[in-house]
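Quarterly update, task 2.4: DP6-bound model.
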Amino acid sequence: MENGRANMKPVTGTSQVTCTAPVNIAVIKYWGKRDERLVLPINPSLSVTLSQDQLCARTTVAASLDFKKDRIWLNGQEQSIDAPRLQKCLGEIRRLARKRKHEEERMGDLLGCCVHICSENNFPTAAGLASSAAGYACLVQSLAKLFHIDGDVSHIARQGSGSACRSMYGGFVEWTMGKMEDGSDSIAKQIAPADHWPELRVLVVVVNAGKKAVGSTEGMQTTVKTSALIKYRAEHVVPSRQEEMRQAVLERDFQTFGEITMKDSNQFHATCLDTYPPIFYLNETSKHIIHLVHRYNQHHGKIRAAYTFDAGPNAVLYLLQEDLPEVLALFHHFFPATTNNSERQFVRGLPDVQRKEL
Ligand code: DP6
C-alpha cells in the first residue's frame, strides 16, 4: 500500500510526464450509477490502494506542436482516441488548464498542442483486477501534471472509470456519493495512510487472467435496471456499513474489517445474481476459495483471512502479516500449480511478499 498522493510518481520533462498508479481493491463495493454521464454512484464505497510496485499502470503523456492529433496506445496497441470517457477526461483537463492559463506562464503553448498517451499495465487487463481504475487514475494524474493542474482531480478520474477516483490516493480511501448535481462533491478522500495499518497484507489469487464476459459498466447498468436487491443494498445496507468499515479501519479492528469485507463482496455478487438475466462473475474455483477461507477461519475461531471478489473470478484476500505464511501454505496445498493458461492459479503478495506460483 502507498501513502497519500505520493503514490503517483511524476518524471517531468518540458512536455512529457510519466506516472504510475496502483490498483485499488474495494472492501465496500461500488456497483450502480445514478448518473451515467457524470459517473455518479448510487452508494459510497471504500477501498485499499495497493503497493506501487505490484499491480499498477504506467502512463507517459507527451505534448508537442509537431503532433498532428491526439493519440493513445494501451499495452503497445493503438486504441481509438474517440472513446467517450477518454474524451471526457482530456476535455476536463484542458478546460481546467484553460481556466488557469492566464495565471500560469509555465503553460506556454501547451494548450495548442496535441497529446500522445502511452499506457501499460503490469497485470492482466480487463480481468476484473481493477485495470481501468489504475489506468484512468494514472492517465488523469499524468495529464494534470503535464498541464500544471494542482489539487484534487479525482472527480475527473471518476468520469473515466468510477473506481479510478479511489486510485488517486494511497492507503485507505473512500469515494463519497456527493449531493451536487454536477458531481463536484463526489470525490475520493484518504481516510488513513497505508502506514496506519502496517501489518495488513493483501494476496491476489489469479484464478483466471482472461477478459471478463460482462464488463463492469454494462453489468451494473443491467443490475440497476432489473434488481430489487441493489436498491435495498444502496439505501439500507451500505450507508451504515460504510461507517462501520471506516471505524474498523481507524481502529485497526481486523475482525470487523474482515467480516464486512466478505459480507459486502457476497452481497455485491448476490445483486449480480439478482440481475436479469443474471451475471455470474464467480466460478467454481472462486467458490472453493470462499469455502476454504470460511473453514480456515472456523478452525481458528476467528477471522484470519477475508476474501473479496470484483467483477471476475479472481480472489483478493486481506490478512495480517503474522498469518501470511500459514495462508500461503494453505493455498499451495489446496491449489497446486497448473500450467493451463485459462485457469492459471498463482498468488501475489502485497506489498512486500513476492509473487508466488502455486
Ligand atoms: C466491482 O469502476 O470498473 O470493481 O465506473 O463503469 O468504469 P465504471 O465501473 P468500474 O466498476 C468497478 C466495480 C467493482 C467494485 C469497486 O471497485 O468498487
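Highlight for this quarter: The helical segments are 84-100, 131-146, 154-160, 216-226, 228-250, 254-273, 284-300, 324-334.
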